[in-house]
Description:
It is a single chain. By secondary structure, this protein is of the alpha/beta class. It has one domain (2-253). The chain is built from 13 helices and ten strands. The protein has helices spanning 2-17, 39-43, 45-57, 69-73, 77-94, 104-110, 121-127, 151-159, 178-181, 184-197, 207-215, 224-228, 240-253, and strands at 32-35, 61-63, 98-101, 118-120, 132-133, 137-140, 160-161, 164-167, 202-204, 221-223. The longest helix has 18 residues, at 77-94. The protein is globular, with a radius of gyration of 18 Å. The mean pLDDT is 89. One of its GO terms (molecular function) is oxidoreductase activity. It holds the Pfam family CCG. This is Cysteine-rich domain-containing protein.
Amino acid sequence: MYNRRLQLRHLATWLEKRDYIFRQYPRQSVSSLIFTGCYFPAYFPYATRNLQTLAAEHNTACAFDCCGKPLLEIGREADAQRVSRKISDQLQRLGVQELITVCPACFAHLKDRLTVPLRTVYEKLAEWGIERQNAASGQVFVPCPDRYGHRQLKQIAKILSGCQMELIANVPCCGLSGVFADDKTMARQMTARVKQRLSGTLYTYCASCSGQFQRHGLNPVRHLLAEILGVNEEPDTAHSLSNRWQFRRMALEL
């Protein structure tokens, strides 16, 4: 029964991600492009709109697409490679000179698969002079791709000056990646370990982690990018499909 459920979940992931149905790229050429990934627009629609507005003020556009990492994690390597090629083709068509990732997993997955230079959204926000004083205080969960070196967390700290943050220690994953993703018991153990260590607001900078913790009752959960953008928003896991569709619909209506 467990294997059957796992197969169905893998099939659902493959059907959605192999040719991402919510994919949307700008129609006009652009040198700087923000790659929002799948889950930030799905769970944080208000923050995504704020990011779009801020980006437009700096002549930067947003793209909505899947990086292909979910396909790689279910063993669909050929499909993941095909997704990378499609992204590369889109960037070439648009004349993109730099790709700015919102999701740490997208950055880790794409950095060696694309010829266009990659930057994080936090590097770009710092370049735009964005800074928030005492915007957040609580505990931070470091996502898997930033586990070693805390590169992106250090970038965030430069923007959120004066914030008091404590790292959630000794929990290697939110339960959605690697071996944890295919074992619900192990995944629940990961979220339970975070809950044991939690004493206030839980901050993440990975939308997938945010959704995972919210679904397992770890509230309140906030995304640090949303805080930087001035949006007090909980992950909206209940409307992830409709949230993603609204951005595609808005783009189609332009």
